[in-house]
Amino acid sequence: MRELRVELEERSYPIYIGEGLLNETGAMFEKHGITAKSPVLIISDENTAGLYLRRVEDALKQKGYRTASYSVPAGEQSKTLALLQDAVTVALEAGLDRSSTVIALGGGVVGDLAGFVAATYMRGIRFVQIPTTILAHDSSVGGKVAVNHPLAKNIIGAFHQPDFVLYDIDTLKTLPIREVRAGLSEVIKHGLIWNEDFAYWCEANASKLLALDSEALIYALYEGCKVKSIVVSQDERENDLRAILNLGHTIGHALEAVAGYGELLHGEAIAIGMIGAARISVKMGQPQDVLTVTERIFNAFGLRTAIPAHLDTDSIMSAMMHDKKFKEGTMVFILPKAIGKVEIHKDVPISLVKETVDFLKQEG
Amino acid sequence: MRELRVELEERSYPIYIGEGLLNETGAMFEKHGITAKSPVLIISDENTAGLYLRRVEDALKQKGYRTASYSVPAGEQSKTLALLQDAVTVALEAGLDRSSTVIALGGGVVGDLAGFVAATYMRGIRFVQIPTTILAHDSSVGGKVAVNHPLAKNIIGAFHQPDFVLYDIDTLKTLPIREVRAGLSEVIKHGLIWNEDFAYWCEANASKLLALDSEALIYALYEGCKVKSIVVSQDERENDLRAILNLGHTIGHALEAVAGYGELLHGEAIAIGMIGAARISVKMGQPQDVLTVTERIFNAFGLRTAIPAHLDTDSIMSAMMHDKKFKEGTMVFILPKAIGKVEIHKDVPISLVKETVDFLKQEG
Ligand SMILES: NC(=O)c1ccc[n+]([C@@H]2O[C@H](COP(=O)([O-])OP(=O)(O)OC[C@H]3O[C@@H](n4cnc5c(N)ncnc54)[C@H](O)[C@@H]3O)[C@@H](O)[C@H]2O)c1
Ligand SMILES: NC(=O)c1ccc[n+]([C@@H]2O[C@H](COP(=O)([O-])OP(=O)(O)OC[C@H]3O[C@@H](n4cnc5c(N)ncnc54)[C@H](O)[C@@H]3O)[C@@H](O)[C@H]2O)c1
Ligand SMILES: [Zn+2]
Ligand SMILES: [Zn+2]
């Protein structure tokens, strides 16, 4: 088991990454001084509930904790205020009090919803994350929690740091391979924005990672979380530096929106977005390497690097416009300067972005 | 105009109390460095919208601020997640961004709802309170914001401090007298828990306050807010000291619940609760004065000091039980030791509480 400390002053917390950790849930609760007098609410989704809920409940019961559970349908459409209210119904009926804890047992969807429940129930109670997807390594650092509004994703939320994160990589064995691959895209992103060695390590270990080799996976999740935690420690409330985490996300979000959520997973969309950012960067004068290496890495993971041809360029452009990073013919973009280094550019010509989108479609 | 600073480290903020302040809204926004580039959302209720919205909008427009507005039905039933979602719809359509501000123009209901919108929109934006009730002097200090759940009041919320509070006492002139009287009950509470001189001053100035004499009102709101701010500064997240603010609230909440919200206003219920606490205190050995003076003060304001006779004692008791401050035949109570001083008692016999409730009913 490896342990990473996310440094956020009095809100600092550890991330435990290893095998067989679900069975340690109760012991970890004790270690973190969580009282057994107050009930614990475990929030999961229909997939993670069936697979892992019982194990977590048992581990808690063994140490004398009382639990209640609430499970939502799988998928993004569960991040709503309506389900937050339902979760609170369960919390109230189970008698959760101000010393209680909410556990998120699942991927980023469950993490965001359960985290927002913990942030707002009685104006904030303890929160423990048990991520069960690779993508959730990202959401396990930074304390961003939220639900969606019919008109905008993640628009209603809070910053609420967990007490600790228990990352049992055994749970990843049941994850569909497409989710594994897409989740790794966000791991690679952490290499690309901050850590050249790690980015190259990812390329070299692509097949091990896709095969969920334990040692490689623990290392990759550790390094991925570490990059994010360094960035977040320096900018907890997203004022400035934290923007670099959005490498690939400007184009990626537009692709997700136009494709309709579902055709492209988030990780798949931002992989293409990172290729787009690298191409723009090269066109603006960075060495060709930035693009070729980025492409090589994503190819090693079998992540597609081209935009599905049937997506309309104008729709993609106007989805980006909607993101409101545009200003007088230019827009703000996070661009790679080299592998492991990015810069915020406020002056990327819209015409160049459009040209890039068009080019990436012909590739497809 | 008087100014009180609520000391909460980097979340400190001023409360401006005076006449004609609504017209200064725009100037105050400028003074607080709020950008005119981002739109402002004004949340009000059907009463305050009709009376004061236009004035606030004009004052902001004069200084170049763009505004949007959202108004909810008057009353407690507007503190819901559904209306929070509606408010966010308006915020999104008006283009509110991370530099935008939400204004609460109204009493405690609007303050709690708008504050929770500000706390959660894009994970927290600026918040300005323009309280228009006397009771809202209480909610303007401390940063507690929340909505209700069908099973529990104020159970979903956050701590979110305003940038500043603009308390225009002219708005109180349209407040129904019953609301004035009930709001003053919470002002008196602040004297009773912390400031003997102020408690006696309230008694001596009861008729001036009920007549909304400007000088008296500004002084009373200032002193009331000051007590609360001292307590909150020492205990922002309600760990301990802050509990003393609940003088009268254990019995008061039970009466509100049993009477059905509406028969007794919050301020009316806690006035009776404070009489109850004083009576329990005397029975437990404090000097008789604590009770006689407390009664005298509330009498001076025409606030009823007895429980409506038709309310069932057992129902009141079980509503208190529901509050879960009970433990093996005793319960936790905030009790006055003297005028201007309270203590937390963890060992008040339930039998004494019941006897007190019964006694207060015979008084009625
Ligand atoms: N808070 C943050 O900082 C942050 C960061 C990144 C992403 N997110 C959010 O995360 C969400 C996406 O996360 P995600 O990709 O984990 O999605 P997800 O939670 O929907 O999980 C993806 C799918 O895998 C299933 N699943 C999860 N774990 C499984 C397991 N171990 N075995 C089998 N199936 C499993 C889920 O039921 C779901 O169907 C988005 O809502 C996004 O906004 C948040
Ligand atoms: N956040 C806190 O710390 C805190 C503290 C105390 C109370 N509260 C909350 O405050 C709420 C009660 O506040 P309230 O008593 O101000 O209730 P309220 O906001 O419902 O106002 C009472 C009534 O007066 C009307 N009104 C308001 N201003 C008016 C004006 N100037 N002229 C004419 N009518 C006017 C309202 O429309 C309403 O009908 C409760 O929901 C309570 O939970 C919160
Ligand atoms: Zn992402
Ligand atoms: Zn009160």
TrEMBL record, chains A, B:
What biological function has been recorded for the protein in this entry? Catalyzes the conversion of 3-deoxy-D-arabino-heptulosonate 7-phosphate (DAHP) to dehydroquinate (DHQ).
List GO molecular-function terms, semicolon-separated.
3-dehydroquinate synthase activity; metal ion binding; nucleotide binding
Provide the residue positions that the database annotates as binding NAD(+).
G108, V109, V110, G111, D112, T132, T133, K144, K153, T171, L172, K173, T174
Domain 3-dehydroquinate synthase C-terminal: residue ranges: 183-325
Give the species this sequence originates from: Paenibacillus swuensis
3-dehydroquinate synthase N-terminal domain location is 70-181
Could you tell me what this protein is called?
A: 3-dehydroquinate synthase
Give the gene symbol: aroB
Residues recorded as binding Zn(2+), renumbered to this chain, are E186, H249, H266
Q: Does the keyword Ligase apply?
A: no
